[in-house]
Design brief:
Blueprint lengths: L3 E4 L2 E3 L5 E7 L8 E7 L6 E7 L4 E3 L7 E6 L4 E6 L8 E9 L2 E4 L3 E5 L2
């Protein structure tokens, strides 16, 4: 069974930065893409960013220019560098790995942006 473990969440002030990690139990090149999603209280889960096997990246409009997705192939880890954080970025952040039409999810990590 594929396992994804997120880490790096926490409390940060507006304008601050956090870096999230998603460690995958298998070679990340086994997957079509690996993505970050988030879910704020009372809202549906939404797409944040992804990186595909070819290294192409996509971002939600609300985070483009502030967030950067990257990967460390040797460590089977995908990162989400989050800068200029806003209170609206407060959510549980989830990592999702996709192979063909099957998705695997991590347990999530809480990010809270507050003064």
């Amino acid at each position: 069974q594929v396992q994804l473990v997120e880490s790096g969440g926490g409390l940060v002030q507006p304008g601050g930065s956090l870096s999230l990690s998603c460690r995958v139990s298998e070679n990340i090149f086994n997957f079509n893409d690996i993505a970050w999603y988030r879910q704020a209280p009372g809202k549906e889960r939404e797409f944040v960013a992804d990186i595909n096997v070819g290294g192409n990246k996509k971002y939600a409009g609300s985070v483009e220019g502030r967030f950067t997705i990257s990967r460390d192939n040797a460590e089977n880890t995908v990162y989400l560098q989050m800068n200029s954080l806003e209170p609206e970025d407060t959510a549980v952040y989830y990592c999702r790995a996709r192979i063909l039409r099957q998705d695997f999810w991590g347990q999530g990590t809480q990010v809270t942006v507050s003064s």
